[in-house]
Amino acid sequence: MGFLDALMGRSKPKKANLDQLFALPSAAITLQVATAFTPTGAGAVAFRAAEGGAFATMQSDVESLLAADADTKVEASKDAYGFTWLVVHDEGKDASDLVTNLHAVNTSLESQGFGPMLLCSLMYFNNPQGDNLALVYLYKRGTFYPFVPAAGGSQQRNSALELQIRGVISNDVPIESDLSRWSPVWGAPGFDS
Questions:
Q1: Taking the mean position of all CA atoms in its chain, how far away is CA 159?
Q2: What Cα–Cα distance (Å) separates residue 149 from each residue in 31, 58, 80?
């Protein structure tokens, strides 16, 4: 960061550490013991798709690589905001395998120069009471936060449960300290898996 950037109040964004995703299996065990939330076997990566053949080829290669595993299903979809979602389903519901696949998607995008297009990665959980949870990794911040929609299908959040989960997993993953960045991911593909 240069003198002019400091003077103008600009700072370099924090570089994401994709290896932090590998802390999710540990967080999954902590969640299961402390809150009864278990992995659903599904997760997703959201990114802004770029135009051109190179990006389309890279996306196709990633989908083919992940689909080579018989226990893994991959589906792509687009949301109302123009983001592409690659949803990964691990039939064995193995958190480690799922995280490895999510990491592969992120790393492929980043290594091909599309890192700035990444928005977030999610790993989905549910509990016996019927609550759904997504642990959201913010690529540009290098931090996680929980997202729990309130029961009943309305677009309300269960903020109390989100804060409880933050306390439970804060030793396993870096938590986003700015609560205003805990954006809801309504309608995220794969969330109801």
A1: 19
A2: 17, 33, 19
For residue 193, give the DSSP letter: -
Digit-coded pLDDT (tens) for 51-89: 777 777 777 777 777 777 778 888 888 888 889 898 999
pLDDT, tens only, 14-35: 555 777 889 999 999 999 999 9
Question: Could you tell me the strand order of the sheet in which 72-78 lies?
Answer: 72-78, 83-90, 38-48, 118-126, 132-138, 143-147
Each domain of the chain, given as residue ranges in start order, spans 16-181
Question: Which pTM value belongs to this model?
Answer: 0.85
* Amino acid identity for residue 176 in this structure: E
SS3 65: helix
Q: What is the DSSP string of 117-151?
A: GEEEEEEEEE-TTS-EEEEEEETTTTEEEEE-BPT
Single-letter residue type at 34? A
pLDDT at 2 over 80: no
